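Hello forum,

I keep getting stuck at the same step: I have a sequence, I want structure tokens, and every attempt I make locally crashes halfway through. Rather than fight my setup again tonight, could one of you with a working pipeline run this one for me? It's a single chain of 141 residues.
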Amino acid sequence: MCIRDRRRVHGEEEIDQNYQPTQQEILEYAQYIGIDLKNENELLYIAKEALKAPLPPPWKPCRRKGVDELFYVNMDSGETIFEHPCDEYYKQYVQREKEKLRKKKQTSQQKQPQQKLSLIHISEPTRQAEISYAVFCLKKK
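Reply #2:
Ran it on my machine without issues. Output:
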């Protein structure tokens, strides 16, 4: 069902239950919501989830007549935005997950056993009194 006024067309979102975003779409959206592709691949599931998320009510997709640009209208308040209504939620979700990862990495680094090392000094004199050398080694305790 579409509601038409003189300037824009309001439509119902068509949801394809079998839709799977391409890897390129996932990577592009991941960057958009703040995922570092080099260091945070474990967060790509968020981008995939976001791309498949339906519009929350009361938002509706709209286009101006003769213009291909999509925007969103809150049918209760009349608010209009050009960013998907869920984008901010997923940006915040990424930040929360980044913080969890950071804490997890800190904790795992702290749990790693500290290796006890002792310094061993070995010194060997040479036949020439003016020249000598020293050898230092680290040994596990």
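The mean pLDDT is 81. If your local run keeps crashing, start a new thread with the error log.
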